[in-house]
Structures are given as C-alpha cells and as structure tokens.
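Please complete every field before forwarding. Incomplete forms are returned to the sender.

SECTION A: IDENTIFIERS
Entry label: holo-387
Bound molecule: magnesium ion
Molecule representation: SMILES string

SECTION B: INPUTS
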Amino acid sequence: MDQRQFFSSDFKLGILGGGQLGKMLLYDTIRYDIFTKVMDPDQNAACKSICNEFVVGDLTNYDDVINFCKDVDVVTIEIENVNTDALEYLEKIGKNVYPSSSTLRIIQNKSIQKDFYRTNNLPTSDYKNYSEVSAILEDYKSGNIALPAVWKSAQFGYDGKGVKIVKNLSDLESLPNLDCLIEQKVNIKKEISVIVARNQREERCFPVTEMEFNEDSNLVEYIMCPADISKETEKKALAIAINIAKKINCIGLLAVELFVTDQDEILINEVAPRPHNSGHHTIECCLTSQFDQHVRCILNLPLGSTKIKIPGVMVNLVGENKIEGDVIYKNIEKILDIPGVSTHFYGKKKSRLNRKMGHITVVNKDVNTAIEAGRKIKKTVKVTSIK
Ligand SMILES: Nc1ncnc2c1ncn2[C@@H]1O[C@H](COP(=O)(O)OP(=O)(O)OP(=O)(O)O)[C@@H](O)[C@H]1O
Ligand SMILES: [Mg+2]
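SECTION C: PREDICTED COMPLEX
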C-alpha cells in the first residue's frame, strides 16, 4: 500500500465497535486525518459524534459486518466479539483485516486460547475444559479438582464477569451449564501487563505495567507505569509477550495479561488483540500512545518509540450506583488541580454499578507521588447518578 494515500484522502478505515477504545483511537485518526467509519449496536455509542461515518449494526451478525465493510479499505476492531466468518470471507476477497479472523477465533474463546498456550508451550496455569457441570462434579468427586479453583466461562466474559472463584462443593453445584474451564488458582504476587505492537515487519513492546484490581468487582482499579518488578521479571515478561504475539500472528496491538506468582514464575492469564485498559496511560506517559501505535500497525507504518516520557498511574472511573441513572462525576473539581492530572470521560450518559465510565491519568517524575495522587483521586471522585 502507498502510505501517502492514507491521509487526507479517500482511504477509509473501518472500525468494528464504537465504545471508549474506539473513541480514543479516533483521537489519533483525527490527528492523522484518516477517514473513519464505525459500526456499533448502540446508536448513542461514544464514537458516533467523532467518526466520519457511523452505522448502527450487530457486530456478531454476518450480513451486518459484510455490508459495513464493503467500502472500507482496512478493517480493525475495538472489541473481540465480532463475526469471524464474515471477517474470513472479507480476507478471502482481498480485504485487509487486522487482527485476522484466525487470531480472533483463538482469542474469542478462553478454552481455545488456553489450548493454544498449551500446544505452543507458552506458560499458563493448569486447566481443563468442560461443557457440563455434571462432568466438573464428577471430576471433583474423584479427586481431580483441587479447591479453591477458578471457573471461567469459555465465551462472552468481560470485565471479570465470566470468572468465579470456586471454594466448595456448593459453589461447584451452582455453576451455570456453559462451555467453561476450571483453572488452578494461582498464588498471585502481582498482575502485570505487556502490550505488544506488531506491523508486518517489526514488533515493539510498551513498558511493563502493574495492574491493581478491586477485590469485590474483579475490575482493574489502578495501572502503574512502570511496574515495580525486577529487571529479570521484566525481561521474562517482555520475551513471553513477544513470543505469543508472533505465534498467534497478531497484527495490531496484543495486550498480554500476566501473573507473577509467589515463586516469581510468569504465567499468561489472557490476551486481547486490541487497545487495552492497561495501556490508557500511554496517552500521557509514553512517546507514542497505544492508539497511535495501533493505527501504525494496521497501516504497516513505522512503529513509534514506546519509551516512557514520564511515569504515571491510571485510575479507572466505574459506576458506583446500583440503579442505572444519569451520570454525575462527583467531586471532580476537587482533583483537577493536582499537577499532571488528565481526565477522560467516555461519553456514556448513564452510570450503573461497575460500568467503566472514564479514567484519570496522573503523571509525575516520581511514580510513588503519582500513585499517592491516584489513591487520593479514587477516594475523592465518585461516579454515580445519586445527587
Ligand atoms: N487462575 C487464576 N488464579 C487466580 N486468579 C485468577 C485466575 N484467573 C483469573 N484470576 C483473577 O480474575 C481476574 C479476571 O480474570 P480474567 O482476566 O480471565 O477475566 P476477564 O473477564 O477477561 O477480565 P477482564 O476483562 O477484566 O480482563 C484476573 O485479573 C485475576 O485477578
Ligand atoms: Mg483479564
């Protein structure tokens, strides 16, 4: 492809999904002056007002995806749950689809993803796939499952929703009858993430970040950059992440979520082939943001430097109100004067419990000062609908 034709031209980039990841990707396509067309089932999706063309459609419907992609030059995604049969057809007729249908198929299903790690000798926790609860109970009764363990739905889990820690027989008995896996519960010392960017010639990693989760919701609460890990752990994490990105043949971004165990072993938890929550801080902290880098990857442009400009912490803003209602960002004015703060609101009018509504990044040349400010922000700002 002739690179000059992407910018200020009739080149069209198609994006499947119009949520906050798409919105942040559009900040960069606007800078590059790339024409964008976005599809999302929600007619009020975050991207609607900032893309060049917006289509309401079902991302999992074959015909909707085909029709949407007819007049675009390159197709990408901001959510993995899209119709891969449609993408495969588009690839066959010569469209550029990144990530590819075959990469997406492995990632869409956690059982297939785990099998992929096992087949390719990539380090991950022990697991077994199941299609019925009765088979899990049988395995437990014959002593083949040690509790506590982790149950995961094979498909459609996100934001910790398809994940349960199972501690006893009654937890096992109350599991839903779905395709699922039971994983060995890992003794986690730290959860870290590496985002790998790959075009058709080279790959580059963003610096390793550390993720801190909310214990009740299982949602990421803070991302710290850089991670507080040894050089050796860093080196191992980067090598594992590059290895998967190559083996899974991902063009674009691949976010690799890793566990550092109490024995300092590194295990892969899961991967996502798109911009990721653990990379939002790159907008302020790195020389190139994950979104800019994704654009470069899928257009096969030279990749940008991922070096840290300044350390920082990202704080997720999630809804705290149990009953859905119009969002209020309570006390936001109290934290805006902290040096190095940037706020990102995703454009969702309604807040509800644990819905990701925005995030705040705070940068500081001393990461511990940033962490302290991040904790203050979390305590002060309340996302709710209750006045
Ligand atoms: N085998 C395991 N042992 C211990 N804890 C685990 C294990 N698997 C998952 N967890 C915990 O549950 C969290 C969510 O798991 P996972 O990332 O698989 O789910 P998810 O629904 O895809 O979440 P998200 O979309 O937020 O990334 C992990 O970040 C980790 O804290
Ligand atoms: Mg996860």
